[in-house]
Amino acid sequence: MRIWQKPASIEILTRISENTAVPHLGIEFLEVGDDFLVARVPVDSRTHQPLGLLHGGVSVVLAETLGSCGANLAAPPDHNAVGLDINANHLKGVKSGWVTGVARPVHIGRTTHVWQIDMRNDAGELSCVSRITMAILAPR
């Protein structure tokens, strides 16, 4: 069942992310499903930490990007979603290629959403799992 309450497409997500951290880090939106979003981030000099691995903070940026976009698209048309809490467990270091994240809702409530974001390397191995809680704000 389609959960989006607002228009949802790769083109829309790309457009609303212009002039943000998303293009700066090379994040690309790949898919908008009925109840999930997919995006990826390159593992390169823009996103490495000093040991040559994907910076854990970049994984969190990917997770927050997907969770925030998902919550905003699934919120009522006149509402906005903002982050309350995010956590991430870094499971496997990634040195090159891409990390792809898939965001799915765990809970869609009237005032909060919880989203799970699983991130995998090019070999399909889980590199990071994240969960974000979003506040759903009514118009003022």
UniProtKB/TrEMBL annotation:
Residues 52-128 form the Thioesterase domain. InterPro entries: HotDog_dom_sf, PAAI_dom, Thioestr_dom. It comes from the Bacteria. CDD domains: PaaI_thioesterase. Belongs to the thioesterase PaaI family. This is Uncharacterized protein (TIGR00369 family). Keywords: Hydrolase.
